[in-house]
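Thread title: Can someone regenerate the structure for this chain?

I was given the following input by a collaborator and told the matching structure tokens would be attached. They weren't. Posting the sequence so someone can regenerate them.
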Amino acid sequence: MTLSEELQWRGLLNQTTIKDLNTLDNTSITFYWGVDPSADSMTIGNLAAAMLVKNLIKHGHKAVALIGGATGLIGDPDGKSQERDLITQDEINSNKEKIVAQYNKIFGEGNFDLVDNYDWFKDFGYLNFLREVGKNVPMRQMLGRDFVQSRLSEDGKGISYAEFSYVLIQAYDFLYLFNNHNVTLQVCGADQWGNSIAGVDLIRRKTGNEANVLSIPLIVDDITGVKFGKSEEGAIWLDPNKTTPTSFYQFWINLPDNNVESYLKIFTELSKEEIENLIEENKADFKERIAQKKLAYEVTKLVHGEAAAIKAQKVTDVLTSKVNLNEINDENLLNELRKEIPNVKIVENAELAQVLVDASLASSKTEARQLIANNAVSINGQKSTKETLENSDFIDGRLILRRGKAFKDSALVEIDNK
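Best answer:
Regenerated them for you:
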């Protein structure tokens, strides 16, 4: 499968100014993608664009990663209903280091060149900027942007000159990389199309040459209809300290069946044949979630490494009662389990209702007793209506207590031997 065919099959293409995508198959180009270090981690929304980049690299194209030290000082207003909070230079530098480390893990060190637009903007005088950039960008073009119209509308919250000018900074980035790094293509998310086109137009006006943009569709939460972005509630982060590898794994394993095929194509490097076979297996028994399990394992391995993916898989199997608790006998695995659910220490022969309260699975002993009476409590995956926990309930001094069916409503209960 050629690169152009693979990008289309994987659903990695949204819009592009490239007239003939087949040119990507037989001509080596230098391209760039940018990320603002507005947070100390990327999300799965960034990961989708990274998979497009990964495909381009795999097919011999040269990659340049632009970490926006300058643009990060302003903040991209596109898609935002109000002004962003400004962050400091120190925060940006710290965020930059962490984001670069994530890219190194995904692509492998040495597979892309790293640039920071702060390097060429820090000494760029305001008057020079107006002459070199501002003079070549029509106001009509800037005022016509959807987010500008929204922010300036009667119900909008307004927009500062700084955020209004953001597009000029990004446009100059493309021009600078075109002139100094031979970059002829920008890769971006669909929401960055307008900013990227401004760069194409600036290159044409300043040099008379052609440059192109290729955008990836936004990855949107089916429930909220909102993109998976850094500033969105419930973001799925690539940093294990913000979203644990097990929670990351569980996000993918809980995807609905109608999403799994497209996500396998976008977020994994599995072949067409492998994905088609997985989907057929999934259709044969949706309850087993074969495709989701493979997706969860592959993406977790890509982002966090194989060892973390195996741990996440084992912990999830315990939480869903697929395997017995005695299979989690390694302290590292136990610590992973403790990160995911409440952990309480109890004395022998403890009252079950009190343990449910201590584990935050019930708000009171009255509610706990009602849950027990309604057969809504399980011990190690088995329903229980007993009043007192017995030694036989524990496996190596531990048990999994659950309220209802959701494995997130679980707790690890351990006998305190002190």
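The radius of gyration is 26 Å.
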